[in-house]
Amino acid sequence: MADEEVAQVPAPGPEAPLQGTVDDEAVIADPSLVGSDLSAEKMDTLIVRGFGARPISEVCREFHGYTTGAAIGALLTVDVNSGRINGARYAAIGEADVEVITMPTINARKIWHEADKRLVVSMRIKPDHLIFSGEAGPVKGARSASEWIDFFDSDAITLWDQDKPVDKSTWKELKGVKDGASVRLMLEPESPAKVKLRLVVVPLGKEVLIQNCDHKNVDLNDPAMPAISMVNGLKMRFYPREAPDSMTSGLGFLPMLYLNTPEVGENQVRPVSWEVKKELFNLLRDTGKPNLCNAKDWAKEFAETHWPGLRAPSLSWPAPPPAPGAQAAPGVPGAPLGE
Question: Is the pLDDT of residue 89 over 70?
Answer without folding.
Answer: yes
